[in-house]
Structures
1.
Amino acid sequence: MVEAKSVLGRWIDRAVALVLASLAIVLWLSADAIPPSFLDTGFGAGYLPKLLSVALFVLSGLILAGTPLRKPRHAVASDAGTAPAPDGRLADRAWAVARRPLALAVLLGVFVLAIDLRLLDSYVAAALFQFVAGLLLAGVSRRSLILSACCSILVTLAVYLLFTRVFTVILP
Amino acid sequence: MTGELLASFGDILALTPFALIVLGTVLGIVVGAIPGLNGAMLVALSLPLTFGWAPLNAICFLVGQYVGSISGGLISATLLNIPGSPSNLMTTLDAMPMARSGRAARALQLGILSSFVGGMVSWMALVMLSPPLARFALSFGPHEYFSLVMVALMLIASLSEGSQCRALLSGVLGMLVALPGLDPVTAQARLDFGFPAMLGGFDLLAVLVGVFAVSQLLQDAAPARVFERITLHSGRLQVGLREFAGHWVNLLRSAVIGTWIGILPGVGGSVGSIVAYSTARSLSKNRDTFGKGAAEGVIASETANNATVGGAIIPMITMGIPGSIIDVILIAALTLHNLRPGPLLFDTNPEIVYGFMSSLLVANVVMLLVMLLAIRWLARLMEVPKAYLVPALLVCCVVGTYAVNNRMFDVWVMLAFGLVGLLFKGLRIPLGPFVIGFILAPIAEFNLRAALIGEEGRWMSFLERPISAGFIFVALLVLFSPLLRGLWSRRRP
């Protein structure tokens, strides 16, 4: 059996270890900068952050030393059997899977931004978000257009009646 | 205790709490049956709704969802070969072959009856073990609490799926996220990076909804594989009670395994069902039939995963340590109502403690009746188009998170943690240790510093107290168990 770890996986491990080590340093410096309070007894507000920064640093070292953070998807290939998939194809497959969740996340971010900046009333933004997200996930067709429109209006109405009338929350 | 428990049943069976249990259980079953949606997501999403309710009503609703979601996953495990939740994973191995051979209704009914038995046994454990454990926990000081938190974190790290290193990393990052805001001992502002909104720290609900609901819903947006689907033609009872009772050894053993695994912090139904299934297979006379439609396999898996529910509530109400991920959200629900789970809850709010007990029992009975009577309709839930469900649930996440504090900052926090959850899933970092680290960090910090201040900084004081020393020994043993196992197996010929 040959352990065939993808180059992509190794780079991800290294990048994660680097991010963790940087985070540990930033955390230590931030904890060090916390001024002692008048109640300070030597175990102040920066004590646990410093302990955690040490733990993070150790874990980043363990990852760099070879404890994989991410199991390679095609780690084991039999001697006589299939070779691991080329990294390009793996990346393409990962992108095909991740594309729609990422698009939905961006759409969600735009929806929240529109409410936060008061560009739209929250109920209008919610209905629009559902309509567009429904089309994104179901694909554009006559049926999906009708269903998305109906669902977005009905759900928005139900959610807003529930929160504003039953729970008396003032929504933006 | 018996009197208080009976009085609690009286409270629970009033119209509103009972209706909320039924509603919660049905919602839980529905969500459990739809592949991709899970109980943690549902409970996190329902949390903002319960904010203005009486605490007992909130508990009834959430416990119903907890029981329902664990049980509902059986339906998709049997008919689609997709476990509705991770705890139904082992069920698929035997339920799907049974369904393929035209015995879908039998597989479902075996699973439903086993789930009920598992729930009842763990309920008995909850009622019998909680009061003495709470009395024992009353003797804990800061040393013992800090050591106990360490045991919880090490256990969840060692028992999570994947590598221990990743689980520990997840736990440390979870603790890190709990740090910004006011220091719990001196009220000193820290790690707020100049943002006034950060002074209050990250809202628990925003983090939970983000990590569990938003990340799961975003993940559900990915193109799904096409699965073989089996249609349920008949919902009539096909399992004789005498035949079912003949499996009593397997039922009892799996329920005990599930309950004990549930008690371990952060370890949910998935580990319980795997251990119970493996045990049933290794002890069975018909072990060759496992994986080919064995009734024993379905029974072991479903009994154990439901038994973890009652087991997981035990450490939560007696010590404030979550027994599973959903228990983290139940702790958040109690915190929202100004209640602190732990041994003092038995004295200060006994109605809440006994409310948990009685609502668990009632939810199990409701689950049994709903699933047995409505199995044919429940089987249709798998046809719900996710393209329209996911956006609707995301809107509920946004509105629900905003509604708790009327702050858009919380919505951004929720969104950010949704992406963090997605990233963790992509990197195969378990989310359980993250949320448990997040919820236990303030308890760990407060008790660590109280202990060190009281002992003038002597770390050895943790080893001078027998209970604390015992907990630290267990924590170290769990931490180094992979290393010890490796050494042991190398020494054996």
2.
Amino acid sequence: MTARYSWRAGVGFAVGAVLLFAVAPVALSDFRLSLLAKYLCLAMVAVGIGLAWGRGGLLTLGQGVFFGLGGYAMAMHMKLADAGPGEMPDFMQLYGQLDALPWWWRPFASPWFALPATVLLPMLVAFLLGSLVFRRRVRGAYFAILSQALAAAMVILLIGQQGTTGGTNGLTDFQGFFGYDLDDPVNQRMVYFIVAGVLLLLLAIARQLMLSRYGELLVAVRDSEERVRFLGYNPANVKLVAYVAAAGMAGLAGALFVPAVGIINPALIGIVPSIEFVIGVAVGGRATLLGPVLGAVAVAWAKTALSEEFPAAWTYLQGLLFVLVVAFLPGGLASLVRMVRRRRPPPDPAPVSPAPVVSPQEVRA
Amino acid sequence: MSGLVVRDLRVVFDGFAAVDGVDLEVAPGDIRFLIGPNGAGKTTLVDAVTGLVKATGSVRFGDDELLGRPVHRIARMGVGRTFQTATVFEELTVLQNLDIAAGAGRGALTLLRRRRSVPVSVEEALETIGLAGLRDKPAGALAHGQKQWLEIGMLLVQDVKLLLLDEPVAGMSHDERDATGALLRVVSADRTVVVIEHDMDFMRSFANTVTVLHAGKVLSEGSVAQVQADPAVQQVYLGVS
């Protein structure tokens, strides 16, 4: 069984790689390809949500925070690299409130700090927050509300600190990405390939986590936390791992979103985008590996396509979609696939006899 | 093997003493039945021993004091329990349920890898509880009795030294009860077992010793015959049967 699984997974990854690396770049225009890069970044967030929510039952309604931390970390580095050594980024000079670079900007000038920070900073925040929250046994709706509040707080903070964060405008107008000119379509294509590769990598990590003993334990915690505790585990730690992993994935997604799309601002990381991440995952099928990815890409694509046609209607459509999926298809579109598959083969007639535990002879002995 | 020693245990909910100064000694290897009318404090006693509710007094298992420790620490000290309604992980298979139960001491690296083989203790437990043929079935698809056995199997692979079973045969057929009782005997060969039960036939067949609780206090204690002969017990609970 294990061998068949890994064989199928190998084929799946190969097909995914061919689609992303060979078919998409040929079939899509530069504009559409850069849109796809954006969708794939959102899909990375979805992979993490699938792990934390689908497998771990943690309704992470505030992934925008981690997406934003990763995105701003990358954007700060790119701004500083554009400005050149010792210079302030253009928007700081424009607002003219500062004489020198704030201390917390400075380390981001080094790629050796900024790049790891895009992943580690969100993970650290998730670790601190998760340690507090899970140990106090905050769960369910309370956890979701808390995540939302955090996303709102982060947006308020960013907007309030306009002089150092770019405020509502966020950070944008990047020229280069590690020395490559971002206006050049060839380099944009390179960014797309990096995004696609990282997404496949994150899928591989998520798959390993889901199939590992940890993945089984995570499902056990989701379904019966108390029982797991009586087996000698601390469920808080189990949840913390999934939460931190999801935060790292969201951070990496945010970091790649910046060169792929060219902007990061509070509107991209607040409550609404945080909910949109979750909608994509719910539509695709939260407990599966690929469901969240396909759902996130489909919803993001539909958003672009439909808001080109009917700008006002998209919000309602999105809400309707979410309600319909939650009400009638709690397993998401992935459960449709399973339903079809289950209907096809005849049920295997393995009669199961109730097994007496010990024979009566042993009882008398 | 260790025994359980409870001294002056008190559990108070909003001024109501659910367990009101219980003293209890369960010898190593004993099968002790806790009986008593509804509300006598049987389940609350087990909750206190396993760390689920706060209590005062003392609960010692072997050399270790259990009171005041978190649930998962007590579990790691070799104290395991089941619940009135069987709680297994319904979406996981029988094998996965047992494997998780066997793994509380696993390190991070083992956890992050896939299960390549079935641990010996899990294989043995599958045989003992008679579910070897159902190992790949989701636990949610098991019959009620089988879920209870799976729970007991999880305690076995968890390698607990003290099993606290809360009404393990409720809702079981006669054959299933006998099989469960036999399982308890096998299990108690090198473990201490405490069973909360309402089923008097089951108690007569399989109890070594019995403690009768009433209104949070110990009413009577002894062998099945002694307890049944106790007029106080007859009055509050057993009736003359």
